[in-house]
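hey can u check if this looks right to u? its 415 residues, i copy pasted from the old doc so theres a chance i mangled smth
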Amino acid sequence: MQQSLAQLRKKAGAHDWGAAADLEDISGEVAIVGVGETAFTGASHRNNKAMALEAIEAALQDAEIPPDSVDGLMVSFGIAEQLNPQDYRDHFGTEQDIWFSDQGGAMIWAATCAHDAAMAIRAKQASVIVNVFAVDWASGRQQGSASPGDWHASESLKAALEMPFGWHPQPLYFATFMRRHMHEFGTTEEQLAAVPMTFRQHANSHPGAKLREKALSLEAYLDQPMIADPFRVADCCLISDGAGAFVMTSTEQARDRPKPPVVVAGVGRGMIEGAPYISQQKRLTATPQTFSAPWAYAMADITAKDLDVIGVYDCFSGTALMQIEDMGLCQKGAGGEFAARGNLHFKRTRSQGGIPCNTHGGLLAHAYVLGISHVIELVRQVRGEATNQVEGVEVAAYAGFTAEESSTLILRRDA
Protein backbone atom coordinates (compact mmCIF):
# COMPACT_ATOMS: atom_id res chain seq x y z
CA MET A 1 0.00 0.00 0.00
CA GLN A 2 1.42 3.38 -1.02
CA GLN A 3 2.30 5.57 1.97
CA SER A 4 0.41 8.85 2.21
CA LEU A 5 2.06 12.22 2.78
CA ALA A 6 0.52 12.25 6.26
CA GLN A 7 2.22 8.93 7.09
CA LEU A 8 5.54 10.21 5.76
CA ARG A 9 5.23 13.37 7.87
CA LYS A 10 4.87 11.22 10.99
CA LYS A 11 8.10 9.41 10.09
CA ALA A 12 10.01 12.59 9.26
CA GLY A 13 12.09 12.49 12.43
CA ALA A 14 12.66 8.76 12.43
CA HIS A 15 16.04 8.84 10.66
CA ASP A 16 19.29 10.08 12.14
CA TRP A 17 21.02 10.64 8.78
CA GLY A 18 18.46 12.50 6.67
CA ALA A 19 14.88 13.61 6.09
CA ALA A 20 12.38 14.69 3.46
CA ALA A 21 11.32 18.30 2.98
CA ASP A 22 7.67 18.86 3.89
CA LEU A 23 6.40 19.83 0.44
CA GLU A 24 2.75 20.66 -0.14
CA ASP A 25 0.67 18.44 -2.39
CA ILE A 26 0.61 20.04 -5.84
CA SER A 27 -0.23 16.90 -7.79
CA GLY A 28 -1.96 17.67 -11.08
CA GLU A 29 -1.81 21.45 -10.66
CA VAL A 30 1.01 22.29 -13.08
CA ALA A 31 2.14 20.92 -16.43
CA ILE A 32 5.11 21.30 -18.77
CA VAL A 33 3.94 22.61 -22.15
CA GLY A 34 7.18 23.37 -23.99
CA VAL A 35 10.82 22.29 -23.99
CA GLY A 36 13.91 23.62 -25.73
CA GLU A 37 17.69 23.22 -25.85
CA THR A 38 20.76 24.64 -27.51
CA ALA A 39 23.41 22.51 -29.15
CA PHE A 40 25.63 20.82 -26.54
CA THR A 41 29.31 21.20 -27.24
CA GLY A 42 32.78 21.44 -25.84
CA ALA A 43 34.38 24.85 -25.41
CA SER A 44 32.24 27.16 -27.53
CA HIS A 45 32.99 30.54 -25.91
CA ARG A 46 29.27 31.23 -26.02
CA ASN A 47 27.78 33.52 -23.40
CA ASN A 48 25.65 31.87 -20.68
CA LYS A 49 22.86 34.39 -21.00
CA ALA A 50 22.79 34.08 -24.78
CA MET A 51 22.57 30.28 -24.50
CA ALA A 52 19.79 30.54 -21.91
CA LEU A 53 17.80 32.87 -24.15
CA GLU A 54 18.31 30.56 -27.13
CA ALA A 55 16.91 27.65 -25.10
CA ILE A 56 13.94 29.77 -23.99
CA GLU A 57 13.22 30.72 -27.60
CA ALA A 58 13.13 27.03 -28.52
CA ALA A 59 10.88 26.15 -25.57
CA LEU A 60 8.42 28.95 -26.36
CA GLN A 61 8.33 27.90 -29.99
CA ASP A 62 7.66 24.31 -28.92
CA ALA A 63 4.79 25.52 -26.70
CA GLU A 64 3.59 28.05 -29.31
CA ILE A 65 3.53 30.73 -26.62
CA PRO A 66 4.54 34.33 -27.45
CA PRO A 67 7.36 35.87 -25.37
CA ASP A 68 5.10 38.58 -23.94
CA SER A 69 2.92 35.91 -22.30
CA VAL A 70 5.72 34.78 -19.99
CA ASP A 71 5.29 36.25 -16.51
CA GLY A 72 7.56 33.94 -14.50
CA LEU A 73 11.25 33.07 -14.69
CA MET A 74 13.24 30.54 -12.66
CA VAL A 75 17.05 30.14 -12.68
CA SER A 76 19.73 28.58 -10.48
CA PHE A 77 21.42 30.55 -7.75
CA GLY A 78 25.21 30.60 -7.59
CA ILE A 79 26.09 27.87 -10.12
CA ALA A 80 26.72 29.91 -13.25
CA GLU A 81 25.79 33.40 -14.37
CA GLN A 82 22.13 33.24 -15.30
CA LEU A 83 19.77 35.76 -16.80
CA ASN A 84 17.26 37.95 -14.96
CA PRO A 85 13.86 39.40 -15.91
CA GLN A 86 15.37 42.52 -17.47
CA ASP A 87 17.64 40.38 -19.65
CA TYR A 88 14.51 38.57 -20.81
CA ARG A 89 12.60 41.77 -21.57
CA ASP A 90 15.57 43.35 -23.36
CA HIS A 91 16.05 40.29 -25.55
CA PHE A 92 12.42 39.79 -26.52
CA GLY A 93 11.43 43.48 -26.58
CA THR A 94 8.64 43.04 -24.02
CA GLU A 95 7.59 45.08 -20.99
CA GLN A 96 5.60 42.73 -18.75
CA ASP A 97 6.17 42.19 -15.03
CA ILE A 98 7.95 38.89 -14.39
CA TRP A 99 7.83 36.90 -11.17
CA PHE A 100 11.41 35.75 -10.50
CA SER A 101 12.97 32.92 -8.49
CA ASP A 102 16.59 31.75 -8.22
CA GLN A 103 15.40 28.38 -6.86
CA GLY A 104 15.10 26.81 -10.30
CA GLY A 105 17.43 25.72 -13.08
CA ALA A 106 19.11 22.32 -12.88
CA MET A 107 20.32 19.64 -10.43
CA ILE A 108 17.70 19.13 -7.68
CA TRP A 109 15.94 22.34 -8.73
CA ALA A 110 15.03 20.90 -12.14
CA ALA A 111 12.47 18.95 -10.08
CA THR A 112 11.58 21.25 -7.21
CA CYS A 113 11.03 24.21 -9.56
CA ALA A 114 7.72 22.57 -10.46
CA HIS A 115 6.59 22.76 -6.83
CA ASP A 116 7.57 26.43 -6.56
CA ALA A 117 5.90 27.18 -9.88
CA ALA A 118 2.68 25.55 -8.70
CA MET A 119 2.75 27.68 -5.55
CA ALA A 120 3.31 30.85 -7.59
CA ILE A 121 0.42 29.94 -9.89
CA ARG A 122 -1.79 29.26 -6.84
CA ALA A 123 -0.93 32.70 -5.47
CA LYS A 124 -1.62 34.31 -8.88
CA GLN A 125 1.95 35.63 -8.98
CA ALA A 126 2.49 34.12 -12.43
CA SER A 127 0.72 31.97 -15.01
CA VAL A 128 3.38 31.09 -17.61
CA ILE A 129 6.71 30.23 -15.99
CA VAL A 130 9.98 29.40 -17.74
CA ASN A 131 12.66 27.36 -15.97
CA VAL A 132 16.08 27.69 -17.60
CA PHE A 133 19.68 26.69 -17.02
CA ALA A 134 22.89 27.40 -18.94
CA VAL A 135 26.48 26.42 -18.27
CA ASP A 136 29.78 27.20 -19.98
CA TRP A 137 32.14 25.04 -17.94
CA ALA A 138 33.77 23.57 -21.05
CA SER A 139 34.80 27.07 -22.12
CA GLY A 140 35.68 27.95 -18.54
CA ARG A 141 37.98 24.97 -18.19
CA GLN A 142 39.80 25.86 -21.40
CA GLN A 143 40.24 29.43 -20.18
CA GLY A 144 41.35 28.36 -16.70
CA SER A 145 38.29 29.83 -14.98
CA ALA A 146 35.18 28.24 -13.44
CA SER A 147 34.78 24.46 -13.22
CA PRO A 148 32.78 22.06 -11.03
CA GLY A 149 35.78 21.53 -8.74
CA ASP A 150 36.23 25.27 -8.26
CA TRP A 151 32.62 25.56 -7.16
CA HIS A 152 33.18 23.06 -4.33
CA ALA A 153 36.52 24.61 -3.41
CA SER A 154 34.76 27.92 -2.77
CA GLU A 155 33.09 26.45 0.34
CA SER A 156 35.31 27.64 3.19
CA LEU A 157 34.98 24.68 5.58
CA LYS A 158 35.46 22.21 2.74
CA ALA A 159 38.60 24.06 1.70
CA ALA A 160 39.89 24.09 5.28
CA LEU A 161 38.94 20.61 6.50
CA GLU A 162 38.59 18.34 3.45
CA MET A 163 40.86 19.55 0.69
CA PRO A 164 44.08 19.43 2.78
CA PHE A 165 43.51 15.68 3.13
CA GLY A 166 43.02 15.16 -0.60
CA TRP A 167 39.23 15.04 -0.44
CA HIS A 168 38.78 16.99 -3.68
CA PRO A 169 37.49 17.17 -6.35
CA GLN A 170 34.26 15.31 -7.04
CA PRO A 171 35.62 12.06 -8.58
CA LEU A 172 37.36 11.26 -5.30
CA TYR A 173 34.21 11.65 -3.23
CA PHE A 174 32.08 9.35 -5.28
CA ALA A 175 34.81 6.83 -6.09
CA THR A 176 35.18 6.29 -2.34
CA PHE A 177 31.45 5.69 -1.99
CA MET A 178 31.42 3.27 -4.93
CA ARG A 179 34.37 1.33 -3.58
CA ARG A 180 32.48 0.98 -0.30
CA HIS A 181 29.44 -0.24 -2.25
CA MET A 182 31.62 -2.89 -3.87
CA HIS A 183 32.92 -3.94 -0.46
CA GLU A 184 29.47 -4.16 1.16
CA PHE A 185 27.47 -5.66 -1.69
CA GLY A 186 29.96 -7.39 -3.97
CA THR A 187 29.36 -5.09 -6.94
CA THR A 188 31.98 -5.76 -9.62
CA GLU A 189 33.76 -3.51 -12.10
CA GLU A 190 32.03 -5.38 -14.93
CA GLN A 191 28.63 -4.67 -13.39
CA LEU A 192 29.48 -1.00 -12.90
CA ALA A 193 30.52 -0.85 -16.56
CA ALA A 194 26.95 -1.64 -17.59
CA VAL A 195 25.87 1.88 -16.60
CA PRO A 196 28.15 3.91 -18.91
CA MET A 197 27.90 1.26 -21.61
CA THR A 198 24.10 1.51 -21.66
CA PHE A 199 24.05 5.29 -21.58
CA ARG A 200 26.60 5.36 -24.40
CA GLN A 201 24.31 3.09 -26.45
CA HIS A 202 21.50 5.60 -25.92
CA ALA A 203 23.75 8.49 -26.92
CA ASN A 204 24.83 6.66 -30.06
CA SER A 205 21.36 7.11 -31.56
CA HIS A 206 20.53 10.53 -30.07
CA PRO A 207 21.22 13.46 -32.42
CA GLY A 208 22.03 15.91 -29.62
CA ALA A 209 24.54 13.75 -27.72
CA LYS A 210 28.19 14.76 -27.49
CA LEU A 211 29.39 11.14 -27.59
CA ARG A 212 27.17 10.06 -30.47
CA GLU A 213 28.61 7.22 -32.56
CA LYS A 214 31.33 6.48 -30.00
CA ALA A 215 30.46 2.95 -28.94
CA LEU A 216 31.83 1.52 -25.69
CA SER A 217 32.52 -2.20 -25.30
CA LEU A 218 33.35 -3.89 -22.01
CA GLU A 219 36.89 -4.48 -23.22
CA ALA A 220 37.32 -0.84 -24.17
CA TYR A 221 35.89 0.22 -20.82
CA LEU A 222 38.27 -1.97 -18.83
CA ASP A 223 41.22 -0.69 -20.89
CA GLN A 224 40.51 2.92 -19.89
CA PRO A 225 42.76 4.54 -17.29
CA MET A 226 41.48 4.98 -13.75
CA ILE A 227 40.50 8.50 -12.76
CA ALA A 228 39.83 7.53 -9.13
CA ASP A 229 39.50 3.82 -8.34
CA PRO A 230 37.05 2.30 -9.30
CA PHE A 231 36.04 5.06 -11.73
CA ARG A 232 37.45 5.08 -15.23
CA VAL A 233 37.00 7.86 -17.76
CA ALA A 234 33.59 6.59 -18.90
CA ASP A 235 32.28 6.58 -15.31
CA CYS A 236 32.70 10.36 -15.07
CA CYS A 237 30.40 13.01 -16.50
CA LEU A 238 31.23 15.16 -19.48
CA ILE A 239 32.05 18.86 -19.28
CA SER A 240 29.88 20.84 -21.68
CA ASP A 241 28.58 24.17 -22.85
CA GLY A 242 24.85 24.48 -23.44
CA ALA A 243 21.43 25.34 -22.08
CA GLY A 244 17.95 23.92 -21.64
CA ALA A 245 14.55 25.36 -20.75
CA PHE A 246 10.99 24.27 -20.16
CA VAL A 247 7.70 26.15 -19.83
CA MET A 248 5.16 25.49 -17.07
CA THR A 249 1.54 26.57 -16.74
CA SER A 250 -1.49 25.40 -14.82
CA THR A 251 -2.72 22.05 -16.12
CA GLU A 252 -6.03 23.63 -17.10
CA GLN A 253 -4.24 26.27 -19.16
CA ALA A 254 -1.91 23.61 -20.59
CA ARG A 255 -4.82 21.79 -22.21
CA ASP A 256 -5.25 24.73 -24.58
CA ARG A 257 -1.74 24.27 -25.99
CA PRO A 258 -1.17 22.37 -29.27
CA LYS A 259 0.98 19.61 -27.77
CA PRO A 260 -0.25 17.24 -25.06
CA PRO A 261 0.56 18.56 -21.59
CA VAL A 262 2.94 16.60 -19.37
CA VAL A 263 1.49 16.85 -15.88
CA VAL A 264 3.52 17.10 -12.69
CA ALA A 265 2.13 14.34 -10.49
CA GLY A 266 4.59 14.52 -7.59
CA VAL A 267 7.69 16.26 -6.24
CA GLY A 268 9.99 15.22 -3.40
CA ARG A 269 13.15 16.63 -1.82
CA GLY A 270 15.49 14.77 0.51
CA MET A 271 18.43 15.96 2.62
CA ILE A 272 21.20 14.28 4.58
CA GLU A 273 22.93 15.26 7.80
CA GLY A 274 26.34 16.87 7.56
CA ALA A 275 25.70 18.66 4.28
CA PRO A 276 27.56 19.90 2.34
CA TYR A 277 30.61 18.15 3.80
CA ILE A 278 30.46 14.83 2.03
CA SER A 279 33.14 13.24 4.18
CA GLN A 280 30.71 13.46 7.11
CA GLN A 281 27.94 11.41 5.51
CA LYS A 282 26.74 8.68 7.82
CA ARG A 283 25.75 6.25 5.05
CA LEU A 284 28.24 6.26 2.22
CA THR A 285 26.32 3.83 0.02
CA ALA A 286 22.96 5.61 0.24
CA THR A 287 21.66 8.83 -1.30
CA PRO A 288 18.93 11.28 -0.27
CA GLN A 289 16.68 9.62 -2.88
CA THR A 290 15.88 7.43 0.13
CA PHE A 291 13.75 10.35 1.36
CA SER A 292 12.74 12.29 -1.76
CA ALA A 293 11.43 9.38 -3.86
CA PRO A 294 8.83 8.10 -1.33
CA TRP A 295 7.53 11.64 -0.87
CA ALA A 296 7.10 12.12 -4.62
CA TYR A 297 5.50 8.69 -4.99
CA ALA A 298 3.02 9.49 -2.22
CA MET A 299 2.11 12.81 -3.80
CA ALA A 300 1.58 11.10 -7.15
CA ASP A 301 -0.22 8.14 -5.54
CA ILE A 302 2.05 5.62 -7.25
CA THR A 303 4.84 3.21 -6.35
CA ALA A 304 8.17 2.61 -8.03
CA LYS A 305 6.56 -0.24 -9.97
CA ASP A 306 4.37 2.27 -11.83
CA LEU A 307 7.31 4.07 -13.46
CA ASP A 308 7.89 3.46 -17.17
CA VAL A 309 11.10 5.45 -17.70
CA ILE A 310 13.52 7.41 -15.51
CA GLY A 311 16.17 10.09 -15.83
CA VAL A 312 18.79 9.85 -13.09
CA TYR A 313 21.45 12.46 -12.29
CA ASP A 314 24.57 10.58 -13.35
CA CYS A 315 27.52 12.78 -12.45
CA PHE A 316 29.21 9.41 -11.92
CA SER A 317 28.08 5.90 -12.82
CA GLY A 318 28.04 4.85 -9.18
CA THR A 319 25.86 7.80 -8.20
CA ALA A 320 23.26 6.73 -10.76
CA LEU A 321 23.46 3.13 -9.57
CA MET A 322 22.86 4.02 -5.91
CA GLN A 323 19.97 6.36 -6.72
CA ILE A 324 18.26 3.65 -8.78
CA GLU A 325 18.46 1.42 -5.71
CA ASP A 326 17.25 4.14 -3.36
CA MET A 327 14.26 4.87 -5.62
CA GLY A 328 13.12 1.30 -4.97
CA LEU A 329 13.69 0.07 -8.52
CA CYS A 330 15.74 -2.88 -7.27
CA GLN A 331 16.94 -4.09 -3.88
CA LYS A 332 19.64 -2.10 -2.10
CA GLY A 333 23.01 -3.39 -3.20
CA ALA A 334 21.60 -5.15 -6.27
CA GLY A 335 22.05 -2.23 -8.65
CA GLY A 336 25.13 -3.64 -10.33
CA GLU A 337 23.50 -6.95 -11.14
CA PHE A 338 20.31 -5.15 -12.20
CA ALA A 339 22.21 -2.93 -14.67
CA ALA A 340 24.35 -5.81 -15.97
CA ARG A 341 21.19 -7.67 -17.02
CA GLY A 342 20.43 -4.87 -19.50
CA ASN A 343 17.54 -3.47 -17.47
CA LEU A 344 18.43 0.20 -18.09
CA HIS A 345 18.27 0.00 -21.90
CA PHE A 346 15.44 1.90 -23.59
CA LYS A 347 14.12 -1.28 -25.22
CA ARG A 348 13.88 -3.10 -21.88
CA THR A 349 10.35 -2.18 -20.75
CA ARG A 350 8.79 -2.60 -17.33
CA SER A 351 6.83 -5.60 -18.53
CA GLN A 352 10.20 -7.19 -19.28
CA GLY A 353 11.57 -6.37 -15.82
CA GLY A 354 13.54 -3.31 -16.86
CA ILE A 355 13.39 0.42 -16.22
CA PRO A 356 14.78 2.44 -19.14
CA CYS A 357 17.14 5.07 -17.79
CA ASN A 358 18.74 8.19 -19.31
CA THR A 359 17.46 7.42 -22.78
CA HIS A 360 19.33 10.43 -24.19
CA GLY A 361 22.69 9.33 -22.75
CA GLY A 362 22.69 11.32 -19.51
CA LEU A 363 25.55 13.35 -18.10
CA LEU A 364 27.93 10.54 -19.00
CA ALA A 365 27.30 10.58 -22.74
CA HIS A 366 24.75 13.24 -23.80
CA ALA A 367 25.81 16.50 -22.14
CA TYR A 368 26.67 17.93 -18.73
CA VAL A 369 23.99 20.56 -18.24
CA LEU A 370 23.32 19.37 -14.71
CA GLY A 371 20.06 17.53 -15.28
CA ILE A 372 17.77 19.94 -17.08
CA SER A 373 18.09 17.86 -20.26
CA HIS A 374 17.01 14.80 -18.28
CA VAL A 375 13.67 16.49 -17.63
CA ILE A 376 13.38 17.60 -21.25
CA GLU A 377 14.04 14.03 -22.41
CA LEU A 378 11.36 12.69 -20.06
CA VAL A 379 8.83 15.22 -21.35
CA ARG A 380 9.51 13.94 -24.85
CA GLN A 381 9.16 10.35 -23.64
CA VAL A 382 5.75 11.05 -22.08
CA ARG A 383 4.66 12.84 -25.26
CA GLY A 384 5.79 9.85 -27.32
CA GLU A 385 8.24 11.86 -29.43
CA ALA A 386 11.66 10.85 -28.03
CA THR A 387 14.40 9.60 -30.33
CA ASN A 388 14.90 6.47 -28.23
CA GLN A 389 11.21 6.13 -27.46
CA VAL A 390 10.24 3.68 -24.75
CA GLU A 391 7.11 1.70 -25.53
CA GLY A 392 3.92 2.71 -23.72
CA VAL A 393 5.21 5.52 -21.47
CA GLU A 394 2.59 6.82 -19.05
CA VAL A 395 4.66 7.79 -15.99
CA ALA A 396 8.26 9.08 -15.79
CA ALA A 397 10.56 10.16 -12.96
CA TYR A 398 13.57 12.46 -12.75
CA ALA A 399 16.07 11.98 -9.91
CA GLY A 400 18.02 15.15 -9.15
CA PHE A 401 21.17 15.20 -7.02
CA THR A 402 23.68 17.50 -5.34
CA ALA A 403 25.32 14.91 -3.01
CA GLU A 404 23.79 16.31 0.17
CA GLU A 405 20.33 16.66 -1.38
CA SER A 406 18.18 14.78 -3.87
CA SER A 407 14.90 15.52 -5.59
CA THR A 408 12.33 13.43 -7.39
CA LEU A 409 9.92 14.67 -10.05
CA ILE A 410 7.05 12.49 -11.25
CA LEU A 411 5.62 13.30 -14.67
CA ARG A 412 2.59 11.65 -16.26
CA ARG A 413 0.50 11.80 -19.38
CA ASP A 414 -2.57 13.97 -18.96
CA ALA A 415 -5.67 11.96 -18.16
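The longest helix spans residues 48-63.
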